[in-house]
Design brief:
Elements (H helix, E strand, L loop, with lengths): L3 H50 L2 H10 L4 H5 L3 H26 L6 H5 L2 H4 L3 H10 L5 H9 L16
Helix pairs in contact: 1-4
């Protein structure tokens, strides 16, 4: 009977040690999930750029459009503008994936900037194309975008309507 407190103490220590072990395992699994998320996004981004590099003409247009003014946009062929819009939708899907992983707690908020969103949201082309892009993505993410970008005035939405 004298050993009961000793046995209970040993049992309590064992339970505590087990909880610490489980906590460490959960932490390690979270880090592995974060690393896997970063890796997948990195592969997708690299593949996106590699695909564009296979078409030098589109690559040239794509790189020039980032900071183009309304005169540049007006001079572009409508097919090229459509390709730019499609490319932006693909890029926004990548950032939406990052956003969802942040929302689920797999990545921290800073991951958005570390993975390129900090630069992308400042590009005037995103603002200029927003009338065509805003409805192509999930509404919660669209709201996040409009809440987190700089004040770049959009171009006239009629600029992209073909006669």
């Amino acid at each position: 009977m004298k050993n009961i407190p000793l046995v209970e103490s040993i049992g309590l220590i064992a339970v505590f040690a087990g909880l610490v072990f489980v906590g460490l395992e959960i932490r390690q699994n979270n880090r592995l999930a974060q690393a896997a998320a970063f890796q997948e996004i990195g592969f997708a981004t690299a593949q996106n750029w590699m695909d564009m590099s296979q078409d030098p003409e589109f690559n040239r247009i794509y790189l020039r459009h980032f900071y183009a003014d309304s005169d540049w946009w007006a001079a572009q062929d409508s097919r090229d503008v459509e390709r730019l819009i499609t490319s932006w939708i693909g890029s926004l899907r990548q950032f939406e994936t990052i956003y969802l992983q942040v929302d689920l707690g797999l990545l921290d908020e800073a991951a958005m900037n570390r993975l390129g969103w900090g630069l992308v949201r400042e590009i005037p082309a995103l603002h200029y194309l927003w009338p065509q892009l805003g409805n192509a993505i999930e509404p919660t993410f669209a709201a996040y975008i409009t809440e987190h970008w700089s004040d770049v005035p959009p171009l006239d939405a009629n600029l992209f309507v073909e006669p």
